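Entry for the shared binder. Reason: the reviewer on the internal report wants the predicted structure included alongside the sequence.
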Amino acid sequence: MRYLQTVIFSLAFSTLSVAEVLPELGEALTVSGIPTTAQFFGGVTSNGGASYLNTVNPDKPIDIVGSWHPEVTHVTTVGNFYVVVQLDENYYFQNEKGQFQEWDLDFKTLQAVRQEITLASVEQIVIIEDFALGLAGLSGKTLFVFLAYETANVPGELFYSGTPIAISVNSSDSEQSPAQPPNLSPSASISGGNQSASDSDGSSGELVSLSGSASDSDGSVSSTQWLVGGSVVATGTSATLSLPDGPTVVTFRVTDNDGATADATVTIAVAAPAASNLTPSASISGGNQSVSDTDGVSGEPVSLSGSASDSDGSVISTQWLIDSSVVATGTSATLSLPDGSTAVTFRVTDNDGGTTDATATITVEAAISVPNSMKIYTESISSQIVQARCVNCHGGISALTLVRNNVADYINKNYNSMKDYIEQGGSNSLLSKPQGINHGGGVQLQAGSTDLNNLESFITAIVSE
């Protein structure tokens, strides 16, 4: 092994180009056991990377090459790279000079092959170039080469290849066996590729079902895994995953019986539910209102004004409704309303179809009707023209005998009732309080009256009312 230490690894920094595609060295691990998305690749080749071997002849010159793919968050950070070889029960690390030193498995004594460098997304190294391992006394031996790195971002943590580069060296006197063909990586695919799904219930964590295909042309598939964020979330060729709203990268990893892996990756986008529409606001200035019928004719014009707004969009229409029928549009309207109470609705509609109603009751108060007797008196009679005289003197409730056309035509009317009619118009002087029984009965002209022509119509109006 001394020869191995002093000779082989003086070649570690040669200019040999590392092949673009190297076998992956299984799932990466960490000393602490935390999951990692780092990847390690490496292999043994005797033809410049056209194929990779696990068994070599002792006199056949070979190259041992490796490649690191640090985690994305570690790229551009400062770190160290390590190469560790296991031979039987002994371990050796490669130092910066390319030489191997025996290691006691104490991480404090472990030295890096590259120290304090800025980590790139891909790091490559040639460990041995064009060298026959039999010259190092390794005939009949098996070497295991591990790759590792650390970053200043995670002090004390070591990220390393879970599977080493395994190199079996034939015995020098053994029959030269034909070269074994390189292991072909398995194939992996995800049905449907990139997909979109809708959040069906508004809660984070939509269930999405995925199906993968796995095969291995030169062996068998040993495992299938589903990964999200570098962590295994399911196994098997199909899985139902709980994915958050937004895009999520899902990886389907296939491993064959020789430890080679293949990944298929898709992006699953879960669309968040649309935000609930907020209904618009509506109000009627003045609220419930009362107005007077100004002309005594049904259909009083009433002017109304409304306010409309929408906090999460825009107002597209405003309408005025009576009994569910649209009678006007816009934020203001002049409506012809009947006497009495009418419910008027101001309806606001937003750009998402949401509606809000504001309702006010508008009361049109009917004009006070003037009794016909008072109209006749006001328009045709200028002074007191009649006086009542009791038939039987019984105070204010005496019956009255009113003369209509002649003395022979009698109609009875309660005195107080007649007086109440007259007083509605403020003309309490029109009739005098009945005099005593000695004055006889009937309705007589007031002395001095000159409005005799209107007496008959006036008396008739009083009686009819």
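Summary line for the report: The longest strand covers residues 246-256.
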